[in-house]
Amino acid sequence: MKTYDVHFNTSDVSANKGFNISMTDCLKWIKNESGYLNDYAGGTVSIVRSDGVTVWERPIPKIIPASLIGEIQATHGIYQRIALCERNGYKVEVRPMGTGGVFQCKRVRGGEIRYQISAGWGRYNYAYCVIL
């Protein structure tokens, strides 16, 4: 029987859990351990067979820490919000957000995650967003 392990990679660090379990059990662990995955946000999580072959891999979305979300919400001027996000290393762009309002978070096709930080305008609710 083939066994598998869960591996994590970012630009700074690589790690693995040291499992010798089935692929199904690896997928279940990944699904249930999202808190652990946050340590590797912006990197990838993969399942590697015991012979070293990667059989499954997905990106781990970058997240905005709760403390920064609180700061963004407490800052009332949009240009101050943009500056705050950019100072913390996040890219801010105008993107269509649809319905949902300020502070909504949406995953769009292609895996991009957007966090809306301003009121929207126009038919498709264009707004300033943090791009993750």
Explain the overall architecture.
- The chain has 132 residues and is of the alpha+beta class.
- It has two domains: 4-59, no CATH class; 66-131, no CATH class.
- It is 25% helix and 30% strand.
- It contains four helices and eight strands; from the N terminus they run ββααββααββββ.
- The strands form two sheets. It has a four-stranded antiparallel β-sheet with strand order 2-1-3-4, with helices on one face. It has a four-stranded antiparallel β-sheet with strand order 5-8-7-6.
- The longest helix has 10 residues, at 23-32.
Helical percentage:
25-40%
| General shape | elongated
Average of the residue pLDDT scores: 90
Number of separate structural domains: 2
Strand order of the largest sheet: 2-1-3-4
Question: Can you summarize this structure?
Answer:
By secondary structure, this protein is α+β, with helices and mostly antiparallel strands. It has helices at 23-32, 34-37, 66-74, 78-87; strands spanning 4-9, 14-16, 44-49, 54-59, 91-96, 105-107, 113-116, 126-131. The chain is built from four helices and eight strands.
List the helices and strands and how they pair.
Blueprint: E1 4-9, E2 14-16, H1 23-32, H2 34-37, E3 44-49, E4 54-59, H3 66-74, H4 78-87, E5 91-96, E6 105-107, E7 113-116, E8 126-131
Antiparallel strand pairs: 1-2, 1-3, 3-4, 5-8, 6-7, 7-8
